[in-house]
Structure formats: C-alpha cells, structure tokens
Amino acid sequence: ATAARKSLTIGLIPADGIGKEVIPAARTAIEAVGSDIPPPKFVDLVAGFEHFTRKGVALPEETIEVLKNDCDCALFGSVSSPSKKVAGYSSPIVALRKILDLYANIRPVVSVSPDPSKPSAVDMIVVRENTECLYVKQEQQTVGEHGREARATRLITERASTRIGQMAFELALARPRKHLTVIHKSNVLSITDGLFRESVRAIPAKEPRFEAVTVAEQLVDSAVYRLFREPQIYDVMVAPNLYGDILSDAAAALVGSLGVVPSVNAGDSFVMGEPVHGSAPDIYGQGIANPVASIRSAALMLRHLGYTQAADRIDNAVDSVLREGQFLTPDLNGSAKTVQVADAIVKRI
Ligand code: ATP
Ligand code: MG
C-alpha cells in the first residue's frame, strides 16, 4: 500500500496552546526526510477549545471531512481541557478517535542511552485499547437505602480485545525481543478482564506467524510495581483502556519529561500522531516547549504507514541531539528554544 502513494497528504491540527508551537516543528522534520517518503502535502486544519470559544464548535465538520476524504494521516497537537464542565464543549480528540475508528493508542517509551552502542535502559511500547472499558462513560447515580450510589458500566468485547491484541502482536513481532505482556486483573474481574485476556491469548492459534512472539501475563497492580523496579523486562504491553491509560503515563515518568513522549492513535485505515503532553498553558507563548514528543510522533506515524527508513532517520536524529545535550529545552534542564531544538534535529536528518 505504501509503494502506491504518489504523495502523502498530512492533516496538521495544532489545536491549543503549545500544540501551535510544536506541530510546526514536527512539520519541518517531515519535510527534511526528503525522498524517503512520497512528496508530503500539508493541510492546516482547526479544532480545539480556543476555536470553540471563538466559533462555538470544537471540531468543525470541515476538519472531519478533509481528514476522511483527503488525508492519509494526521498530526494532532494538544487541547486544553477546561477545569470546569463547559456547556456544549466536548473534547475534539476523543471525538476524532471515535469518528476515525482509531482503536489503538500506541505509546513507545524509550530512554536515550548515553552510549549509542549500548541498549536503552527503558525501551517498551504500551498498546492501549482506545474505545471501550470504563471510557464508554455510562455512569449513573441513584439513591439507595444508605444514601447515594454511583455505578459505571465497563464494556469489554471480544472484537475490540482481539483487534487491539492483533495490533500488539504485530508490533511485538517487528521488534528484536518479540515479547508481549498482557495486562489484566482477571483474578478479581474474571468476566470482563477474563474476556480481554482470553481474546488476546487466542490470537496466535489463529495466526501462526504470531507464534514467534513470547507471551506473558501480568496483573495490573504488579505490572506498575515491576515497571518501576525493573522496566527492562518489558517489550510490548497490551492493556484495556483504563489500565493502559495509567500504565502509559507511569511509563512516561521513567524517561524524564512529558515533552519527549510520543503516541499515535491508529485504526485499520487511518493513523494520527499526537504528543502525550497537553497544551501546557504554564509555558505557552514563550517558545520553549519541547518539540521532541511531536517530532517523535511524526516518526511513529510514518513508521506505522510503513516508512521505516524515514522514521529511523528522524528518531536517530532526535537521539543524537538529546545525547549531545547542546540543544535542550528547559524541561530537560537546557536553555534552548523550540525552534533551535527543531533546527538541530532537522540538520541531523
Ligand atoms: P492540559 O490541561 O492541556 O493537559 P496541563 O496543565 O495538564 O494542561 P500538560 O501539558 O499536561 O499541562 O503538562 C504538564 C506539565 O508538563 C506542565 O508543567 C508543562 O509545562 C510540562 N510540559 C508538557 N509538555 C511539555 C513540552 N512539550 N515541553 C516542555 N514542558 C512540557
Ligand atoms: Mg495534562
């Protein structure tokens, strides 16, 4: 499929806050890879809380249509989440995941080894199911005999568990260690987590090429403990939505700054890169946001589309710039600006 493209149309949705500073930086990194990808065409698209306050819509219909009809992939910046519930507003990124059926959230967490010939201390991918679990948001409150009672529905389906499992096996198969850890809590939630676990474990019998992947299981609580004690045991982890959310933020803490952790939201027909961090209102406007998370998200997006060489070139350039330490933003104890870091990376590419 990748060989067939004459050009690569990339939707850019900076959205709010530092998204507007780091997405342009990611664009320059993509432009720098040259002929490793088909000629890129960038389409600027709007969404976000700021757009909502000005125009009354967080995710314009036009943005959705252009993404669906014209784009091969997209890069999303960040949205600021209002501290209180705002009437009529709902998060555009959550809506986009649903509309484009981006059922997997893929977050590689990698530390940069000081010596390029030595392996990284932390090198894992957290694969989080993106569409169900407690995030179906079916909650209710009633009044019982002893006061108020609140309940939430947790949905786990065989279909969603199987497709996220397949994506995780695929990612594990492409890595040197080929190791997959299935995260659950089926000792307590034997029906819901039991179905997730069974669905994932059943995959290799149906797709024999996945038999090359070694599979382990872990209860989510012990997984968090071991993640902090011995992160090197993990290669690829796959988890239902809520556990994946918690594990991927926890894993990000192992590598220093939110400003370096990328992700993609992926489905069967679309992929959207997105830095893990938010809109960082505390530093927005100073030009000091770390562009690495967005640049790595661009690399991850290209990797997912099959442009391995382009992705490697971007990642290697980022690694060298971080290792050298001359151009680092303040979150990494440096004093460089966003554009200086991006320029240094572009030069390396
Ligand atoms: P939001 O509601 O949009 O998530 P937030 O206040 O939670 O906003 P985050 O963006 O989640 O802010 O960031 C948390 C902290 O990490 C902030 O102090 C922010 O400045 C810092 N941070 C996040 N991203 C970056 C980045 N790319 N470069 C530098 N610092 C960052
Ligand atoms: Mg935040």
Automatic annotation (TrEMBL):
Pfam families per the UniProt record, alphabetical: Iso_dh (PF00180)
Keywords annotated in UniProt: Magnesium
UniProt keyword Plastid, yes or no: no
PROSITE patterns for the chain: IDH_IMDH
Domain of life where this protein originates: Eukaryota
One GO biological process term: isocitrate metabolic process
A molecular function GO annotation: homoisocitrate dehydrogenase activity
Isopropylmalate dehydrogenase-like domain span: 9-345
Protein family per UniProt: Belongs to the isocitrate and isopropylmalate dehydrogenases family.
PANTHER family linked to this entry: DECARBOXYLATING DEHYDROGENASES-ISOCITRATE, ISOPROPYLMALATE, TARTRATE, HOMOISOCITRATE DEHYDROGENASE, MITOCHONDRIAL
Identification of the protein by name: Isopropylmalate dehydrogenase-like domain-containing protein
Organism: Collybiopsis confluens
